[in-house]
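Regression check, adenosine-5'-diphosphate case 397:
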Amino acid sequence: MTFRKRTVEDVDPRGKRVLVRVDFNVPLNDAGAVADDTRIRAALPTIRVLLKGGAAIGLVSHLGRPAGRDPKLSLAPIAKRLGELLGRAVPLLPDSVGPEMKKAVRALAPGGIVLLENVRFHPEEEKNDPAFARELAEGFDIYVNDAFGTAHRAHASTEGVAHVLPAYAGLLLKKELEALGGILEDPAKPFLAIIGGAKVSTKMDVLRSLVPRVDALAIGGGMANTFLLARGLSVGRSLAEPDRVTEARLVTDDVEGNGKELLLPVDVLAAPSADADGAAGAAVYEVDEVPAHLAIVDIGPRTIDRYAQVIRRAKTIFWNGPVGVFEVPAFASGTRQVARLLAESGAVTVVGGGESVQAVEEAGLADKMTHVSTGGGAALELIEGKTLPGVAAIPDR
Ligand code: ADP
Ligand code: MG
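Current build output:
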């Protein structure tokens, strides 16, 4: 898929002051240090290309959901980690707007870099306040958006400022759109989608978008239970959404009526509860024999075998949503095996979502996939066919 937006590759940044929106909304540990720096590392190519090109850059990001200024959500630990990754200190400015910020940006020499403090300390950010967007732009010549994980939000730093400064896409934004957009536009066939996760209700738009494009659809996780209900099966005490049975039936008919393969679990791991306490009482059952007092917590080994056959044939695989309660090690087998099967397949493999990406990373298999998205909600909205405001605001080439 060709990416049509202007990117950092289309501009000579020499001598320019560049405001770069990155997604440094990373998890912190109890000590307040960066617990997972995936998103920081993902922004390095854009940062490096701009510095090498002779730009001076100010990085802007949000972290968490502060209600006003909150020292616990300062970007200080991120400035420290970024400095380690770049091998040079990255000063953190005390604010994202205001006279001090303007002065510091003016003082930046080519090749200089600063990080602005959490942009969400200002409520105007999420309101996409035009005056705030203009304040953010103060002192900068151009704007680069590399924050894919926030591109589905029309905020001042992701959307508003693109109307104030000449706007360009960063390399991560481009990579994400090419990988996820490629899945939608021209996937090599056969195209398999594996959709898991907790609830059908949050994935219905994803399913609706994917069903016409896929050759096979595998459904696992809690959401499979609603599909089993739609087949007339009982799911005991499993997580399920009886009010979504009709929708599940429509998806089923749509897939099967068009001669495509729908893989629902044929066997499952069921337990007295979906937490660690349930592990001792867990056992594998055929899908039509799940006891009324148990809850489905993972797909079973025969289901995995069927997945494996379809995965082996596929040329493109999109995976979103764990197929079991993978947070409990005893219920993580299905999800771990899906990750391994994808890693071993020769297909184009694209993983998007929050927990599914976490599962791939925990399995240490992220670098075996064609693309692991850094955007949870943004990746899903893209797959749903929605326009991402942060992308739409960047002019075409
Ligand atoms: P993603 O973030 O990858 O899009 P979701 O947010 O939709 O995925 O769902 C992730 C959650 O789904 C996980 O926390 C997992 O525990 C839960 N889940 C998976 N299978 C089941 C199941 N059988 N019963 C209950 N919850 C499940
Ligand atoms: Mg999630």
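Comparison notes: The mean pLDDT is 96. Residues 353-355 surround magnesium ion (ligand 2) (CB under 6 Å). No diff flagged against the previous build.
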